[in-house]
């Protein structure tokens, strides 16, 4: 799926994206409202070295402090510090839990240590940070203080090196104060994360659905998949169940689509035009009967004597579409109870209809019989075009026997409903019985945008007749030439 196809999928499946966006945003807002605010208090320590006034000693002490300060930062969260703070401040927590809320960082090439404490109360966070800084200073100075060697008092050594005084001292450069606002949660950040997460989730679901969806969305995709000529694209119309027949004088998108189908069918087989055409589909619900009925109407409208045969003996619908009698028809002729002309009904103009007749117990055998072939040839000798509405290919075997008597077949495919596998299996079924597939009809396609049909706007609409006023015309007739 390329970028263009992905963007079209996003537009067509926008409800999925909107739902994911709303869910993710709601989850982010809920998490923000349910989260306990967390505050951070920060204090800073300066590590100094006790040296004399000698510049060389001062530089050496500076290097010593920078080398040791990284190790000092790791001592902040030890039990020597946290256990004393918990006891001093009488905190209702353990030293280990308190250590998890303390962060100590020593910036490189400095002698500074930044201590940060997180807590659910701002004042308590500041108190803990200051207490940790004091206890930490005492622990470091105690650890760095050299132990007195035996007899040091009699040796006369300098107090700075042998009296137990630490060579380093830690001073507070910035005391912790109660923070004014929490660092967590962050409503705007959470909202932005929710929006971004919702969009990504929606896009991911759309991409997944498009990958798993094997239906055919466009007539171009159908043509590329089957390599069969696309003879027509019938737009979706919600009024079809109420008005299945297109008007012969209408200029609606559906009427024009069936005229285009008729024209393409006639010009696609100029050298060997088929006289008997079977209209079928892969599965039920793809609109094959409606296609057969309106194609027959369009052919009759063009002046061709047309016969429409209802060859779907399991669920016949042709007679009810035209409001004709269904009990007498094809099955009556096949079993020899009547002749074709006895049960043929007129649907107006040059269109004749042979209804299905009574539903038989053995439709497959009847449709594949030699008598069925004779009936179709008799009709072809009488009419210029014979359109046969057949049963779907995949559920039953009725059509395979009947289609072998036809001179061509139209395969109806419903947009965004029929899967690739169903179309492939149907085409292979017709090919196995040596049925020539004239082309495909892409049915119930998304209606074209615009007030008219196709890309020509209202090109197909006829201008409204001009209504004249007899009084104005009489006045104009009596007005002198050149008068005003």
TrEMBL record:
Topological type in the membrane: Multi-pass membrane protein
Domain Polysaccharide chain length determinant N-terminal: 1-89
One Pfam family matching this protein: Wzz
AAA domain segment(s): 275-416
CDD domains per record: BY-kinase
Catalytic activity, EC: 2.7.10.2
Signal peptide: 1-30
Basic and acidic residues: bias regions: 143-156
SUPFAM superfamilies, per database record: P-loop containing nucleoside triphosphate hydrolases
Location of this chain's protein in the cell: Cell inner membrane
Family assignment from sequence similarity: Belongs to the CpsD/CapB family.
Protein name: non-specific protein-tyrosine kinase
Natural source organism: Streptomyces mirabilis
């Amino acid at each position: 799926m390329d970028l263009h196809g992905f963007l079209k999928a996003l537009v067509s499946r926008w409800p999925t994206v909107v739902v994911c966006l709303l869910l993710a945003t709601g989850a982010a807002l809920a998490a923000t409202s349910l989260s306990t605010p967390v505050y951070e208090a920060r204090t800073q320590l300066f590590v100094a070295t006790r040296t004399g006034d000698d510049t060389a000693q001062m530089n050496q002490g500076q290097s010593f402090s920078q080398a040791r300060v990284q190790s000092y930062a790791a001592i902040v969260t030890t039990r020597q510090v946290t256990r004393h703070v918990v006891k001093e401040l009488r905190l209702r927590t353990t030293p280990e839990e308190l250590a998890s809320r303390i962060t100590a960082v020593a910036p490189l090439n400095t002698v500074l240590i930044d201590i940060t404490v997180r807590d659910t109360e701002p004042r308590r966070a500041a108190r803990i940070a200051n207490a940790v800084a004091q206890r930490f200073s005492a622990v470091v100075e105690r650890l760095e203080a050299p132990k007195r060697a035996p007899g040091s008092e009699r040796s006369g050594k300098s107090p700075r090196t042998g009296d137990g005084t630490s060579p380093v001292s830690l001073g507070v450069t910035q005391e912790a104060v109660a923070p004014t606002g929490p660092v967590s949660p962050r409503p705007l950040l959470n909202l932005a994360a929710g929006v971004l997460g919702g969009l990504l989730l929606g896009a991911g679901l759309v991409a997944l659905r498009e990958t798993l969806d094997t239906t055919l969305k466009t007539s171009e995709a159908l043509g590329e998949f089957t390599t069969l000529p696309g003879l027509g694209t019938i737009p979706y119309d919600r009024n079809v169940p109420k008005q299945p027949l297109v008007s012969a004088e209408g200029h609606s998108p559906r009427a024009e689509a069936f005229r285009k189908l008729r024209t393409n069918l006639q010009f696609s087989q100029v050298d060997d035009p088929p006289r008997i055409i079977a209209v079928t589909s892969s599965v039920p619900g793809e609109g094959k009967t409606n296609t057969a009925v309106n194609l027959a109407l369009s052919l009759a409208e063009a002046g061709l004597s047309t016969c429409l045969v209802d060859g779907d003996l399991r669920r016949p619908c042709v007679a009810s579409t035209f409001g004709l009698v269904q009990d007498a028809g094809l099955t009556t002729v096949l079993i020899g109870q009547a002749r074709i002309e006895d049960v043929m009904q007129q649907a107006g103009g040059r269109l004749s209809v042979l209804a299905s007749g009574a539903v038989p117990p053995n439709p497959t055998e009847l449709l594949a019989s030699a008598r069925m072939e004779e009936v179709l040839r008799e009709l072809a000798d009488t009419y210029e075009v014979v359109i046969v509405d057949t049963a779907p290919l995949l559920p039953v075997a009725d059509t395979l026997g009947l289609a072998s008597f036809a001179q061509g077949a139209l395969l109806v495919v419903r947009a965004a409903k029929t899967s690739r596998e169903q179309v492939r299996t149907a085409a292979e079924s017709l090919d196995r019985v040596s049925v020539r597939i004239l082309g495909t009809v892409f049915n119930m396609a998304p209606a074209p945008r615009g007030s008219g049909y196709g890309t020509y706007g209202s090109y197909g609409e006829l201008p409204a007749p001009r209504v004249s006023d007899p009084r104005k015309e009489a006045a104009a007739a009596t007005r002198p030439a050149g008068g005003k």
